[in-house]
């Protein structure tokens, strides 16, 4: 049996009363790479930080080798997306920092730091400062700084997403060959990512997180030999499956009949982007493979998914089996003249987008005028301040396009369009 290193049991986390993680249970074992895959806001970073012991759970427990955490997890080290290096320290000093904090004496500290620098391909850069290095080299320092601690579990929070495509691919491959060659001074890896292909390239198991609040949707084993071939049919089938899991409905978490604006936030997309997606699906015969159009458009999943979510929310497309299919309304929306298309959009937004529906109903009851600040106050109960403002901005964009209501920033007034049908 594999060594159990970390167990997370029924962990929930709320910030200011707002739930972000809901009863997460998982185990990290020696010898495996686990990917936590989810879209933006599904609580991946929060979960990773909870595993690292950097933030305490609101409920539930995290254990390292059976011992419940009481502060930082002694069996982990973290690699951050933003590198998080000390700019005033050289590469060598940055790598030594964690060992110094552990009280390792100067001589062994230096020896271990030099060995980690060597392992990760930073030889010759010992006395450079972070600002002299490229992004890829800075992240190598990030890896060396974590690996020098020889943690049982290496935690990585989107470590490649700030790098250009080629640098990221190169660094990923090097890490995988170190892992395969058993030169990695750690027993397990847990990586947070929103990139499906990255998850399939690296992981032995992919844990798919859903949002609002973050919960485990599925666990998908990746039983492929390394190095993995992106072009193999089994690789593509797994990517399709994960796309489906990230975009499809969750049968065991039924939507409330009338979802509230906080339970179903508006995806952050403009009407232009949304119309563009629907047009592409129509131009390709009304049905497309999601991974294909993501690749064709050179989109990251995080760029594409909000568009897919918005089009699904508005009933313009449906997602099944990794495919995106145009609905009847979606077809009319994209082929009708502009006025008809706006009318269709207005009806769909009013009936299916919870915040737009809420604003329309409130305007109908208030003789067509309301202060936007009223909605902002209500939204702040369910969202962080910046997210609340973003929700209102999206609703205004959609409402304006559908000629349902307008917003005057000078008076902070939302005003119903006199010709709009605000209630179905
Ligand atoms: N310290 C905090 N205080 C308040 N809210 C927070 C805090 N940290 C995270 N959140 C909120 O928790 C939610 C989940 O955030 P988290 O960063 O864990 O998600 P994520 O899946 O990693 O997203 P991303 O890919 O965008 O980083 C977000 O709504 C975020 O605003």
Give the amount of beta strand, in percent.
15-25%
Share of helix among residues?
40-55%
Which cofactor or ligand species appear? Answer: adenosine-5'-triphosphate
User: Which of globular, elongated, flat, extended, rod-shaped describes the shape?
Assistant: elongated
Order of strands in the sheet with the most strands? 6-7-8-3-9-10
Write down the overall mean pLDDT. 91
Domain ABC transporter: 6-236
Protein name: Nitrate/sulfonate/bicarbonate ABC transporter ATP-binding protein
Pfam family, one: ABC_tran
InterPro entries: AAA+_ATPase, AAA-associated_dom_C, ABC_transporter-like_ATP-bd, ABC_transporter-like_CS, ABC_transporter_ATP-bind, P-loop_NTPase
Walkthrough of the structure:
- This protein has 424 residues and is α/β, with parallel strands linked by helices.
- It is built from 15 helices and 16 strands.
- Helix 3 crosses helix 4 (135-147) and helix 12 (338-352) crosses helix 13.
- The longest helix has 17 residues, at 385-401.
- The mean pLDDT is 91.
- It binds adenosine-5'-triphosphate (ATP).
- Adenosine-5'-triphosphate (ATP) is lined by residues 15, 20, 38, 40-46, 194, 384.
